[in-house]
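It is worth pausing here to work through a concrete case rather than discussing structure prediction in the abstract. The textbook approach is simple: state the sequence, then state the predicted structure, then interpret. We follow exactly that order.
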Amino acid sequence: MQLLSPCISGQDSHAARLRRCHALLLFAAFALSCCAQPNNIKRYPVFGIVLDVDREHNTFTASIREIPSFMSAMAMPFNVRDSRQLGSLRQGEIIDFTLAVGKNASWAENIHQHIFVGGDREAQESARLHTLETLTSPPSAIKELNPGDQVPDFSLIDQSNTPVRLSQFRGKVVALTFMYTRCPLPDYCFRLNNNFANLQHRFGLELGKNLVFLSVTFDPVHDQPAVLASYAKTWNANPDGWHFLTGPLPDVEQVSHEFGLNFWQDMGLITHTLHTVVLDRQGRVAANLDGNQFSAKQLGDLIQATLDGHQQLIENE
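Step two, the predicted structure:
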């Protein structure tokens, strides 16, 4: 059975979306039970990004990948039977879990939080150099930010050679990632910027108004504004809402290290870790996604949840 209707629709209220998601999952459980023996429980492996955690009602909402032959990729709430399963779960975390579907109910179990460790040479070398730097360098004065922390203001230069301050986007949701234009790997910088390119279409009316994309280069010596302007054209980047940023190396290092990103020159290339960060409208870290395992849709659902969270606060005032 294939569920084709997405749970998230820009035309519905946040509460209506969640009600529709519950109905879809109950329908799936009912349909499955029609061809199953009583008390026969089906289990499916699921990979997703946490959008919200409701500990009071033992539920969490996640944007999940397709479950083949059962459910399309979508964002929806999941129940847990044991509140301890929620543990320290919070928005923006990448998880996998088992979805159990019975005759009259469904629930998530065996929830595991992911720590990204790439399997290719660059990821392994990055981890090795990070360990070596930790052992041989004095403690850094730069405090790494955690979800909920206020992000210190910073100023860099965008592809039009215009100074850009983070504080000028206060009141908007900011999605920020790191890259360099000469990155040769299609699943690294290219993939992270491709996520933003895909989301330009999804958030066309919001981009520049309520949402901003920032792509920060950690190769500022080469990636000057003219280079970034050419690079931005390859993505058809809307300059009103998507800024490619460069600046003095110490300033770039400050911003990168605050979000846990590390990079090193390595035989003409740059070895680096991967981070994509979402900031709320107050300039706080809403989520910091490590690695490249998530899809553009999952990142978009996380951004939508951050936008909706602010709207919900307005409606409750």
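Step three, interpretation. The chain has six helices and 14 strands. The two ends are 42 Å apart (CA to CA).
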